[in-house]
């Protein structure tokens, strides 16, 4: 391969700098999985339609199968491996476990990264298709079940664990103060929690 088709770059992934020399056609997903051994993001459709490869780029969710790695220099990339704080799981990871929001687990890393990004988008006041037109612009969006389903619709689950995923996202969002429950406390949660 000609030298002009490869570039040396530094990718900032999960708060660590990684120096790589990559073919210009290498996707971020392939760089993560094949060059860095970060296999949490999955290659599902490889066309940006299933969400299994979702990661966070500068805090916003993105399908890593559609991004060229050489274009990600200087950006902060977070994969599912970077969500936990040492041994302490991210609140969404805890909620997914508690709410049994996965079956085969293939889509779970993408669902988790997407949910983290989605909660931030809602907190920042980004409306979705189902956000009422009367909602004040720029204010946090109330995360009802419909809001969560709409915002997570780009992440497919072959097993159909959607109701549990919605419960887990709503629970984590409520505990973080970025979502509200429309029917009292989260199901299955005691008064002491």
Question: Can you walk through the features of this model?
Answer:
Keywords: Iron, Metal-binding, Oxidoreductase. InterPro entries: 2Fe-2S-bd, 2Fe-2S-bd_dom_sf, 2Fe-2S_ferredoxin-like_sf, 2Fe-2S_ferredoxin-type, 2Fe2S_fd_BS, Aldehyde_Oxdr_Iron-Sulfur, Beta-grasp_dom_sf. With 193 residues, this protein is α+β, with helices and mostly antiparallel strands. The chain is globular. The protein has 5 helices and 5 strands, in the order E-E-H-E-E-E-H-H-H-H. It has 2 domains: 3-82, Beta-grasp domain (Ubiquitin-like (UB roll)); 91-176, DNA polymerase, domain 1. A 5-stranded mixed sheet has the order 2-1-5-3-4, sandwiched between helices. Helix 2 (91-98) packs across helix 5 (162-176).
Helix content: 25-40%
Strand content: 5-15%
What is the rounded Rg?
A: 18 Å
Which class do the helix and strand fractions yield?
alpha+beta
Mind telling me which CATH architecture of the largest domain this is?
Orthogonal Bundle
**Overall tally of domains:** 2
- Can you identify the CATH class of the largest domain? Mainly Alpha
CATH H-level name of the largest domain... which superfamily? [2Fe-2S]-binding domain
Q: What is the end-to-end distance?
A: 58 Å
Query: Which spans of ≥5 residues are poorly predicted at pLDDT below 50?
Result: 179-193
Shape by Cα distribution: globular
Overall pLDDT confidence: 90
The CATH topology annotation of the largest domain reads as DNA polymerase, domain 1
Strand order of the largest sheet: 2-1-5-3-4
Strand segment tally:
5
Give a short account of the largest sheet. 5 strands, mixed
